[in-house]
Each structure stands twice: as C-alpha cells, then as structure tokens.
Amino acid sequence: MGQLDKELLQELLDVSEKELTPKQTKIVQAAIEIFSEKGFAAASTSEIAKRAGVAEGTIFRHYKTKKDLLISIVLPVISKFAVPFLAEQFLNEIFEGEEFEEMDQFLRKVIYNRYEFVRKNTALLKILLQEMFYHSEIQDTFKEIYMEKIAPKYRNLMEQFLTKDQLESIPMETIFRLTISTVLGFLLTRFIIVPDYDWDDEREIEYTIQFIKNGIKGLS
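Structure tokens predicted for Transcriptional regulator, TetR family:
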C-alpha cells in the first residue's frame, strides 16, 4: 500500500491553522493511511492507534469518535490545505518558466509530473476519491481551484496549439475533459485499480499521449 509522503504531510501540517502536537501528527498520518487502505467505515480506532504508536485512549482524548477524527482533522487538512497546496505546486511545476512548442511535450510533462505525485501519495489520493463524493467542502474546493486556476492556464495553452494547427477547432471544455479523463484513467488504473499488474510505465505513458493527441486531432 502506498503511504503518504512524509515530507508532504509535514508541509501540509505546517500550513494548518491548528497547531498539532507530535502525537496528534502521528494520529493524523496513521488515520490517513488506514482510511485509504480500508475506507472510513472499515477502519478502527484501535488500528489507527497501533499504527500511530499511541494508546487508543489518546485518540479519544483528542477526538470523541472516529468520525470526529475524520471531520475535525483529516478532511480539513485535505480540503482546506492539501488540494490548494497541490494545485499551486502543480501549476508551478508545469507552467512556470516553460514554453511548449508541441502538444506531445506538454502532455508528457503533465503525465510524468502527476505520475510521480500519485506514486508517492497514493494514500492521499484514495482518501480524496473516497470522501469527496460525501463532503461538499471537498467538492467545492476542487471546483474553485480547477475552474479558476488550472483550467484558464490549460485553455490558453490549448489555444496556442490551435493556432499551430495541432488541434481541431472544438470547444476548449471538451478538450479539457477528454485530456483530464484520459490521464486520470491511466493513473487510477496504474496505482489504485490494478497496481500489481506488470506495467511498462514508459510505454503506457507514450500510448496515452498518442491516444489523446491523435484522438483530439481526429475530431471534427
């Protein structure tokens, strides 16, 4: 099972409005990992305590119930800090200081960038996927960041490719949807659905790039 990258966890906790004790930090990390492995319903506070190296009573001194732990600590870390932080990090790594002459070049950088992130933080991604459907605050955060920050940059870049006749003149929203769904489909299959399959990652990434590029160009 992929675990939450410790450096990323610390960065997320550092920007939290609520200062956590070392024991609380261990509890949060353990909760994220176990929630991602088993889901919230199947996870137990005894498992979280064992993973964190604390007594189960320590959890209940800070959080009255398992749900209180999820709502009070884990979801705020994810919805208020993790998603915005990761979006800013993604934007800086992809768009800052770089010009893309070809669509292949852009897609390759995006896919390898998100591949490395998901590889290191599969646990965080699982929590987001499991809980975002049930918690409006996570959904709203995603919508705000992707619609206001990521989508405009992506749209501008796609318009540049349009002027170079690399893309057909179809709605930008359609290009965005097709690209994102294909990349996410690859990453989810690779790291969550069938992670133990004998993947040839470089080959799969190149297939994904060509599928997106040639598929969009073929649209009329």
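The mean pLDDT is 82.
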